[in-house]
Design brief:
The chain has a domain of 60 residues. Helix content is 89%, strand content 0%. The protein is built from 6 helices and no strands. It is rod-shaped and about 135 Å long.
C-alpha cells in the first residue's frame, strides 16, 4: 500500500498518466480520422466512376447526335435537289411575283384573276375526269422532241373540244 501512495503522490506518475491519456485519445482520433479518410476516398472514387460513366454516355450521345445531324443535313440537301422541291420553289417565286403584280400593276389584276379562274376550272375538270390531264400528256410528249410534243398535245386538246 505504501508503494501505491508513493506512486500516487509522485509528479512523474501523474505526468505519465496524463501523457498516456492524451496518447490513447490521439490514437482514438487517428483511427476515426483514418476511417473518415477512407470513407471519403471511397465516396470520391464512386463519384468519379459515376461522372466518368456519365461523360462516356454524354460523349456517345453527342456523337450519335452529330451523326444524325449530318444524315439530316445530307437528306435535306438531297431533297432540295429533287424536282418536286424545285417546282415548289418555282411556284413560290410565281406566287410572290403575282402578289407584287396585283399590288403594283394597274389593269393587270382583272386579267390575271380571269386567267387564274380559267386555269382553276381546267384543273377541276381534269380532276373530275371531264377532260384528259394535260400534265400527263405534256410529260409524255415532251420527252422525245421539243416541238413535236407540243404539237401532239395541242392536237389532243383540239380533239377533245
Amino acid at each position: 500500500m505504501e508503494i501505491v501512495n508513493v506512486i500516487v503522490k509522485s509528479p512523474f506518475a501523474w505526468g505519465l498518466a496524463i501523457g498516456l491519456g492524451f496518447f490513447v485519445y490521439a490514437l482514438f482520433r487517428l483511427g476515426v480520422s483514418n476511417r473518415e479518410l477512407s470513407r471519403y476516398k471511397r465516396m470520391l472514387s464512386d463519384k468519379m466512376e459515376v461522372e466518368a460513366e456519365l461523360m462516356q454516355r454524354l460523349k456517345a450521345e453527342r456523337q450519335e447526335l452529330e451523326k444524325e445531324n449530318e444524315n439530316l443535313r445530307v437528306e435535306v440537301s438531297i431533297l432540295s435537289e429533287k424536282p418536286d422541291a424545285k417546282i415548289e420553289n418555282e411556284l413560290e417565286i410565281l406566287l410572290r411575283a403575282e402578289k407584287s403584280m396585283v399590288m403594283n400593276a394597274p389593269g393587270f389584276p382583272a386579267a390575271w384573276e380571269t386567267a387564274k379562274a380559267n386555269a382553276a376550272d381546267e384543273i377541276a375538270n381534269e380532276l373530275a375526269g371531264k377532260s384528259m390531264p394535260k400534265r400527263i400528256f405534256k410529260k409524255l410528249f415532251s420527252r422525245g422532241t421539243s416541238s413535236g410534243g407540243q404539237e401532239s398535245l395541242e392536237s389532243t386538246q383540239q380533239g377533245e373540244s
